[in-house]
Specification:
CATH architecture of the largest domain: Alpha-Beta Complex
Shape: globular
Number of domains: 2
CATH superfamily of the largest domain: Medium-chain alcohol dehydrogenases, catalytic domain
Number of strands: 15
CATH class of the largest domain: Alpha Beta
Distance between the termini: 11 Å
Strand content: 25-35%
Number of helices: 11
Oligomer: single chain
Largest sheet: 7 strands, mixed
CATH topology of the largest domain: Quinone Oxidoreductase, Chain A, domain 1
Radius of gyration: 20 Å
Length: 322
């Protein structure tokens, strides 16, 4: 099969498109022919070595396609089933061996490409607003990168929950997308101090929660946007790692809470994965959740996808297609 293989961590030039052996499904696994794989910042972190992995490896943690072969004891599945998966290494490839407990079967109204676009980022948005800080009517949240892959989905889910949404974006085009997704207020952080704007918008009450995927560049100002006992949910670091700090600052900012979650702890069990997928697929069917694919890029051009993501030139999801 053809796949992207990283032999040495570093720049996007380390994404090598080449032939490798087809994987063989083991016990309780199926072989999935990928139609699309999602591109995420965690793939960049793996490529650069920020999140270390043994080399060589095939990057990518989410994909969707159809089952073409069964391993031992994969009795509840059959070839031809349309499926998607998340948290399984090796999605940047024509085929991936996937444990059955990481699979969800796709309903008829969800295509493989749509599923590949929501498995990681959609599940992330789901656990952020349902579990890490359960949003409810009357809450106000600040969502950084509101026109990004997670951001656009999280804005919509926050509105489904009845919360008020303030989003930060960098451009006029991204502002338009975030507003279309349902954001009540938009802050152009390239023009305005988002802390002052949050204080103005909330009349000094600030936010119950800040969802921050940016990290280093926004961390301290995000703390300043929280109401007393608020939550800073730091779920990414697209601008770099947050430097060490004295935890007493959380007291000084109003006895606020800080958490650094990851999706894979929130879909560790089969039931959690299925419940989150059921919600997301239901909202898609009801047209309450719109999935925006920024562009589809051939697997062979994975370097282009990583460059676009790192340069923050995307609005919505990037997919690699096989």
């Amino acid at each position: 099969m053809k796949a992207i293989i990283i032999h040495q961590t570093g720049s996007s030039s380390q994404l090598k498109y080449q032939e490798t052996e087809d994987p063989t499904p083991g016990e309780n696994q199926v072989l999935v022919k990928n139609h699309a794989a999602g591109v995420n910042f965690i793939d960049v972190y793996h490529r650069t070595g920020l999140y270390p992995k043994d080399t060589p490896f095939i990057p990518g943690l989410e994909g969707a396609g159809e089952i073409v072969a069964l391993g031992k004891n994969a009795h509840d599945h059959k070839p031809g089933m349309k499926v998607a998966y998340v948290g399984v290494p090796g999605a940047y490839a024509e085929f991936t061996a996937v444990p059955v407990d990481k699979l969800v079967v796709l309903p008829n109204h969800v295509s493989a490409k749509t599923a590949a676009a929501v498995m990681l980022q959609g599940m992330t948005a789901h656990y952020l607003h349902k579990s890490t800080f359960p949003l409810s009517e009357g809450d106000t949240c600040l969502i950084h990168a509101a026109a990004g892959g997670v951001g656009l989905l999280l804005v919509q889910m926050a509105k489904i929950a009845g919360a008020g949404v303030i989003g930060t974006v960098s451009t006029t085009e991204k502002e338009k997308l975030a507003r279309e997704a349902g954001a009540d207020e938009i802050i152009r952080y390239t023009k305005h101090d988002f802390v002052k704007e949050v204080e103005r918008i909330t009349q000094g009450k600030k936010c119950q929660v800040v969802y921050d995927s940016v990290g280093k560049d926004t961390f301290y100002k995000s703390l300043d946007c929280l109401a007393p006992l608020g939550y800073l949910v730091l779920f990414g670091q697209s601008s770099g790692k947050v430097e060490s700090f004295d935890p007493a600052i959380l007291n000084q900012k109003g006895s606020v809470f800080l958490t650094r979650p990851t999706l894979f702890h929130y879909v560790a069990g089969r039931l959690q994965l299925q419940q989150r997928a059921d919600d997301i697929f239901k909202w898609i069917q009801q047209d309450a959740l719109k999935v925006r694919v920024d562009r589809e890029i051939p697997l062979s051009d994975a370097k282009e996808a990583h460059d676009l993501l790192e340069q923050r030139k995307t609005m919505g999801k990037l997919l690699l297609t096989t």
